[in-house]
Amino acid sequence: MSYHVDQNGYYGNFGGAFIPEMLYPNVEELRTNYLQIMNDPSFKKDFDQLLKDYVGRPTPLYFAKRLSEKYGTRIYFKREDLNHTGAHKVNNTIGQILLARKLGKKRIIAETGAGQHGVATATVCALMGMQCVVYMGEIDIARQAPNVARMKMLGAEVRPALSGSRTLKDATNEAIRDWINNPLDTHYIIGSAIGPHPYPDMVTRFQSVISEEIRKQLLEKEGRDYPDHVVACIGGGSNAAGSYYHFLDDTRVNIIAVEAAGKGIDSGESAATSALGREGIIHGCKTLLMQTDDGQITEPYSISAGLDYPGVGPMHAHLYASKRGEFISVTDDDAMNAGLELTRLEGIIPAIETAHALAVPQQRPFKKDEVVVINLSGRGDKDLNTYIDHFNL
Ligand SMILES: *Cc1c(COP(=O)(O)O)cnc(C)c1O
């Protein structure tokens, strides 16, 4: 069985490109060019150079001694929180803006929910001197004021989506409309391993630098280039896809995917897509999707804005359906406790998205000699108010 994308853009039964006719030329231009551009030595050189000098890669692989002692196993953290802008998202926006430049594009659009992808996009647009328009639901603009301010400071225009529930899916619709109207000069940077083919594969390849580095770093530290378990949280699935990529076909490595259970899987307030979802189409791909019996998308819930998404990327739907991945869901409370525990035991304040992955050793025992790599997808500065309110600090 293959866990990589096939010629038609599918991972098993999931993926593809379900798009309006008018978007076809844009997506087709990308599909026919992305691999060739990404494999071009001059592209690779620019990408690697920026990852090194601008983002700060390679990020460390840190052995968490105190946490490992507590859980009786060997836990390493891949420190994506130390990237410029504080999370893994910039790996993808750097890659896509370089690709847009190769395609001759002058203008960048993006959608954002919590604003993290919007900030990562506005950052690289400032770096490259490209015009940047970020679509964001009116409700999210009000909820995420600091990130809106960051995008504006970086020179991006933040356009409110005023229709529907005025959140992420409405912002996505506005971005798609913009792209249809501006096919020649504009590139649409999608922020996770979702969307029509080739986006999931393209984003995964840009993020795969994470597992590439893990291999080298483990060889140095453990004398072997693979862990027993690789753990990551899943919103749309980009940090997870990047952490798994070089281990997908290596069955010595157990893949653990962590979803947000919110207030509990059966509470009606959850974002645990593998447990609650069925096959459906969202944002241009066939995947697992939380929906009502008549196919309306269910409003997801999680305390972490980055995991509050009703679908998962098609790679993850396939990892679930084929049982290659072990899927675990973690509640708000368990994630918050794990975030505080990491802070107090290791002096690292994690993003609340990441804190879901950190709760895994509490829910699932590991053996003493096992090597467990957890992807520390982002830092918690953006979440301080949520932590402080939750714990009455
Ligand atoms: C956006 C975000 C996520 C979720 O997105 P994925 O595409 O699933 O990786 C996870 N962690 C952090 C820190 C984020 O900012």
- Return the CATH topology of the largest domain: Rossmann fold
Mean pLDDT across all amino acids:
96
Please state the overall shape, judged from the principal axes of the Cα atoms: globular
Number of DSSP strand runs: 14
Would you tell me the structural class of the helices and strands?
Answer: alpha/beta
Low-confidence segments: none
- Proportion of β residues? 15-25%
The first-level CATH class name of the largest domain: Alpha Beta
How many structural domains? 2
Q: So, CATH architecture of the largest domain?
A: 3-Layer(aba) Sandwich
Main β-sheet, spatial strand arrangement: 3-4-14-9-10-13
Proportion in helices: 40-55%
Computed Rg: 19 Å
Description of the structure:
By secondary structure, this protein is an alpha/beta fold. It has 2 domains: 10-50 and 89-202, Rossmann fold; 57-87 and 208-391, Rossmann fold, CATH 3.40.50. The protein has helices at 24-39, 41-55, 65-71, 89-102, 116-128, 138-143, 145-153, 168-181, 199-207, 209-222, 238-244, 273-276, 314-321, 332-346, 352-358, 360-363, 384-391; strands at residues 10-11, 14-15, 61-63, 74-78, 107-112, 131-137, 157-161, 186-189, 229-233, 254-262, 278-282, 285-289, 325-331, 371-375. A 6-stranded mixed sheet has the order 3-4-14-9-10-13, sandwiched between helices. A hairpin with a 2-residue loop joins strand 11 and strand 12 (285-289). The chain is globular and about 55 Å long. The N and C termini lie far apart (49 Å). The structure holds pyridoxal-5'-phosphate (PLP). The site of pyridoxal-5'-phosphate (PLP) has 19 residues, from helix 11 and helix 15. The site of pyridoxal-5'-phosphate has 19 residues, from helix 11 and helix 15.
